[in-house]
Amino acid sequence: MAELSAVFLNCTLKPSPAVSNTEALARKVIEWFDQSDVESEIVRIVDYNVKPGVTSDEGDGDEWPLILQKIKQADIIVIATPIWFGVRASIAQLVIERLDGTYGERNEQGQYPLYNKVAGVVITGNEDGAHSAAETTLFNLTHLGCAVPPNPDTYWVGDAGPGPSYLEAGQDHEYTKRTTRWMALNLVHLAKALKANPFTEPIPPPGAELEPEDAAAAIQEDLLGG
Amino acid sequence: MAELSAVFLNCTLKPSPAVSNTEALARKVIEWFDQSDVESEIVRIVDYNVKPGVTSDEGDGDEWPLILQKIKQADIIVIATPIWFGVRASIAQLVIERLDGTYGERNEQGQYPLYNKVAGVVITGNEDGAHSAAETTLFNLTHLGCAVPPNPDTYWVGDAGPGPSYLEAGQDHEYTKRTTRWMALNLVHLAKALKANPFTEPIPPPGAELEPEDAAAAIQEDLLGG
Amino acid sequence: MAELSAVFLNCTLKPSPAVSNTEALARKVIEWFDQSDVESEIVRIVDYNVKPGVTSDEGDGDEWPLILQKIKQADIIVIATPIWFGVRASIAQLVIERLDGTYGERNEQGQYPLYNKVAGVVITGNEDGAHSAAETTLFNLTHLGCAVPPNPDTYWVGDAGPGPSYLEAGQDHEYTKRTTRWMALNLVHLAKALKANPFTEPIPPPGAELEPEDAAAAIQEDLLGG
Amino acid sequence: MAELSAVFLNCTLKPSPAVSNTEALARKVIEWFDQSDVESEIVRIVDYNVKPGVTSDEGDGDEWPLILQKIKQADIIVIATPIWFGVRASIAQLVIERLDGTYGERNEQGQYPLYNKVAGVVITGNEDGAHSAAETTLFNLTHLGCAVPPNPDTYWVGDAGPGPSYLEAGQDHEYTKRTTRWMALNLVHLAKALKANPFTEPIPPPGAELEPEDAAAAIQEDLLGG
Questions:
Q1: Beta-carbon pairs below 8 A across chains A and C
Q2: If you ran DSSP here, which 8-state letter would residue A26 be given?
Q3: What pLDDT shows up at residue B18?
Q4: Which residue of A121, A127, A177 is the best one to mutate when testing the D interface, meaning the one whose CB has the most D CBs within 10 A?
Q5: How far apart are CA B15 and CA B13, in angstroms?
Q6: A127 to chain D: which residues are within 8 Å by CB?
Q7: Beta-carbon separation of D194 and C192 below 8 A
């Protein structure tokens, strides 16, 4: 069994078996993970029936619970998204919205269930928008409980305007190859550092100027009342 | 001597001695740092002669080198910024632009000088824009070398449209108090975790599909050539 | 028959008959439109089967063509969206992605089909993110062909952190009431100004340093080849 | 005398006489303006002593008032900015912050002084960030009073990661040439349409559910009280 596990949430708009540029770049990250004793799984979100909403189970055939389980079991979470109109794809936003449901849960330490996981992003687009897609996604994941290493992203974009996609461009871009390796190694490093020294403090209750001894009780109230 | 040190870069537009709402919230974070054996310093950027540019010394009286030295010596870097027009203040952008100069340096491990530091943000505004200011700033700092814990931000904003500022509103907002504590404790935790397990890999050279043994040589070339 | 027509694309995540805060604010804009001889229709996107994709008909029961027809017939297009995680909802992003399909069409003047329409936005959220949602959406709509008046938005957000929604807060916010009126009147004014003086130039062909007389031919090639 | 006038606010970080890529692209827009009887002026902001702040005169040698006068006299306002770290330059943010001072003024129609002007953007960067820079800047300008035509922007960016600048890349990019022309013609068209049909309504007072006859009085109060 591998030392660490990673889940890649591929947010392409195209259902299987269509070729996904975003998956192609994700697979490059996985090549580095393979060398680092990290077991990886890719989940193409559009292949599942994931309903709009902000809970962990929207019922009526909603398959989000299957995906959420994979997320909870992983040490490393990578959101892989194409760029459309300068920002992340609707499917990536859908994934983040569905993760809102985890705010209502607490683990044994009184933390959100994504605490002590690390997050990264993989982004592809014909052009412009990688910074926007990366920054929004990574920040959202820190609110959900993830930590983020330096250089937590790899992306490929072409120059201004319409143009070839990542695969058409040949997957041979120096900067993208460099950041792919960089991201992979840094995610692994931080995941190990958190295994050795996990966050142990419960998340603070609203207001949060309580003495430590009052915190656990307040958190219980928070969960019951919220 | 304290176990850890933090530098707060206050990016208010107002020179001293004008009252800074952003500093007022930063001081709340410092109260938590004081309890955690973290020594803090606030630098109000507009009180210095910081020239526009993307190098570490723009010459001709430029005082950025003084500030950069403080940043390099800190374990925790917090950018504290007001919101103007929905995004971070011009002074925060200026700080990030000047940090571009650190890309040309390497530490003993062949990393950017901000590696193994942790980053957080403090944001205040009459209204709307905290997510934008936070996400852009934190992402930029990860590219510069910082790691980011979960819940790495605290902010206060009023509701839609013009309105009172943080101090006028009374500094007593439950969510802001909660996130202030949360951010402070998580920054400290991650800083300690990285002291125990620092990133040790040199940053990869362009291309970066080299065998590990070739990396050091390539990095040397990168530095000489770049 | 009314002088102008407006379509509101409500991008709430909640299907009918659930109450939509975003619709509630959209209806306030409609009150002003009613006084200005503008006929309004609200389309709640999640009530339709709108498939992910970037064409105008993704087949297999896709109901986007019905919505696109309404958009093409309107003089004023308003995207109404909740904020989730600091940005526009996934459904708003889905709508923009589907409008990508219109880039492949030209009207009689050789323009995109959304030319000579005007665009505005309505945004609601518990907190923070209105500027981001507005700016991304309006910019996307200008690329698709719409013009934007001054003060093209109305939004309601509460202060920092979780809190009541627009309807719970009582719909009586001074700034929001002001901008609702402002937006409505300015959209109407610009729509009338463009009726009187429509953009008539065909969109330029790639490269676009041709003499005017060559442009029409190049555009034809563009359409045939693209 | 030309029919229309345009002011380009060049927000490069480099003082004259350094070569500005952003200015180089702005000059391409001016070539089209020259053919359309539009008189153009470029103001390189860093060549002036523009102090941080949010008023129209920060005193003590502040040269913003000179620039603001040029802005008020122009029919077309173009903010030209480089990209740094995925967003607009600090100088562009500074310009927007200083325009905050115009919110305190009203023209003869009771509108902000930038009403009935049209806005566009010119953006250059080695890579990624044009959408972000454009959307934030254009939205800010609509709040200040400007209207925005379709395709109101031209940009040049290279592909992912560091690379050549606009001038080094040869200024010969098909998409950028196309959007340069497109933007120029659309700005001119909208400026003329607003000359023929200017916005005439005063901006609404706070609250803004007054009868029209009460509005003028309320606006007077707004100005005196605000």
A1: 67
A2: H
A3: 98
A4: A127
A5: 7
A6: 157
A7: no
- Min CA distance, C3 vs chain A (Å)? 32
Q: How far apart are CA D66 and CA C132, in angstroms?
A: 31
Total Cβ atoms within 10 A of residue C45: 25
pLDDT at B209: 53
Cβ–Cβ gap C176/B161 under 8 Å: yes
D225, pLDDT greater than 50 = no
pLDDT at D207: 64
Reading the block at residue C60, the tokens are 């297999």
Helix (H) or strand (E) holding D195: helix D174-196
Q: What ipTM did this prediction achieve?
A: 0.93
Contact D152, D180 (CB under 8 A): no
> Is any Cβ of chain B less than 8 angstroms from the Cβ of D11?
no
- Cis-peptide, bond into residue C205, ω within 30° of zero: no
User: Which residue shows structure tokens 């901006």?
Assistant: D203
d(CA D26, CA D79): 9
List, in order, residues 6 or more apart from C11 with CB less than 8 Å away: C22, C45, C79, C80, C81, C82, C88, C89, C91, C92, C94, C95
Query: With an 8 Å Cβ cutoff, are B199 and A189 in contact?
Result: yes
For the stretch D2-38, pLDDT in tens is: 999 999 999 999 999 999 999 999 999 999 999 999 9
Of the CA atoms within 13 Å of residue C38, those in its CB half-sphere come to 29
User: What tokens appear for D164 in the block?
Assistant: 């050549």
**Which residue is listed with tokens 């792919």?**
A180
The nearest CA of chain C is from the CA of D170 a distance in Å of 14
Q: How far apart are CA C102 and CA D153, in angstroms?
A: 19
Closest CA to C7 of C99, C128, C84: C99
Phi/psi at C18 (5° precision):
-55, 145
**What's the CA angle centered on C84, arms B169 and C51, to 5 degrees?**
165
Q: Of D209, A135, C130, D145, give the one whose Cα is nearest residue B126.
A: C130
CA distance D63 to D84: 25
* Burial profile B16-35: b = 16 or more Cβ within 10 angstroms, e = fewer: eeeebbbbbbbbbbbebbee
- Which one, of C118, C121, C140, C145, lies nearest residue C131 by Cα? C121
Domains plus CATH for chain C? 4-225 (3.40.50.360)
Distance CA A175, CA C212 (A): 41
Query: How distant is the alpha carbon of residue A144 from its chain centre?
Result: 10
List CB contacts (< 8 A) between B188 and chain A.
none
Distance from chain centroid for Cα A62: 20
Give residue for tokens 């407006």: C6
Angle among Cα D113, D118, D123 to the nearest 5 degrees reads 115
pLDDT in tens, A154-164: 999 999 999 99
Q: Do A193 and B192 touch (CB under 8 A)?
A: no
| 3-class DSSP assignment, residue D198 | coil
| Chain B contact present for A204, CB below 8 A | yes
Which positions of chain B have pLDDT values less than 70? 207-226
- Cα–Cα distance measured from residue C89 to residue C12, given in angstroms and rounded to the nearest whole number: 7
Q: B136: which chain A residues are within 8 Å (Cβ-Cβ)?
A: 135
Assess contact for B100 and B57: CB atoms under 8 A. Answer: no
Query: How far apart are alpha carbons A52 and C45 in whole angstroms?
Result: 11
- Count Cβ atoms within 10 A of the Cβ of residue A55 and give its class: 0-12 exposed, 13-18 middle, 19 or more buried: middle
CB atoms within 10 A of CB B210: 15
Contacts of D224 (CB under 8 A, 6+ apart): none
The rounded distance, in Å, linking the Cα atoms of D117 and D82 is 23
Verify whether the Cβ–Cβ distance B186 to A199 is below 8 Å: yes
